[in-house]
Design goal:
Shape: elongated
Helix content: 40-55%
Largest sheet: 5 strands, antiparallel
Structural class: alpha+beta
Strand content: 5-15%
Distance between the termini: 87 Å
Radius of gyration: 34 Å
Number of strands: 10
Order of helices and strands: HEEEEEEHEHHEEEHHHHHHH
Amino acid sequence: MPQDGKQQNQQDDNDKPKHLLAMTIHSCLGYRLEVRGYSGSRRLQPIPCNLFPMEPVSKYKFDDFEADVKAAELRRNGARLKLQLQPFQVLVALLEHPRDVVTREDLRLRLWPQDTFVDFDHGLNTAMAKLRDVLGDSASNPRYIETIAKRGYRFLGNVTAVQEQARRAAAGATTEAAATTPAVRPAVPESADSELPRASRRTARTLFTLSQTMYVIFYLCALFRLDRLDDSAHVAWGRAGYPMFVAYLVTALVGMVVRLYLITATAFDYHLLGQKYRVLFPFLFVLDMFWALSPFLIADRMGLGLALGATAALIYMPFAQRVLMKMITETRA
């Protein structure tokens, strides 16, 4: 009888409809676990599960910026920006939780271990200041990073996370397309930027600095002997000599300040130099056109023909400086 009963129960189990049950468990460690069985069984029979690791995020993109997590580098339109490791870690922590508040305590645990003795507030404030400076952001009028008083910070921009698998797939697709597509001569862009000379950013910065240094030398030579400047102005301009002398004196003093600012900003690779130069350019254009006439002050000593040639070269200088600044900013962006 027991054997008959067991056979009967097994027969009942076989007669029952069998529906595959599946349960998916997502763990906080980034793995997915699947357990399957049949509803007709007396108990759920687990099938050996597989672990499918979720691909880690390799990059974060927002606006023109791209944060490479593995390389610990921040780029803007492909150009690498100077950013130290701690400010970069702060940026990644904010990008992982866009539009959410990341507390200062969370940042402390991420940047400094428990057994590290450091002035946390000063260190975090310094890292945040450097990060905002690279992003061109400000605490008073935030575009990317908002300060939440007594709590932490919040990233305001739209963030796109690029996973490692998606990046490799895109790279493979690009390689395959390049292999199957016949070579085609690239079209020359019709934009004005395509007409910029092909030179390194370092070369452009050096030439721009030399041009500013040239104007500084002009101003120093004019200010070194004011009596000679007064005499030359009267010889060159006659009755208008005194007003021209005052004009050269004032513009030399103002131009000295502006040129020194441009030299130092270029030397320190100030990221807002392009914007500042666009604001200053109308004033600099008038200033440079005025000083383009300065060779006539010594035309009696250098000759009229050489003075005309020097004036023509100085008239070209504002346009050359503008092209150099475009090369600096475009290569950096």
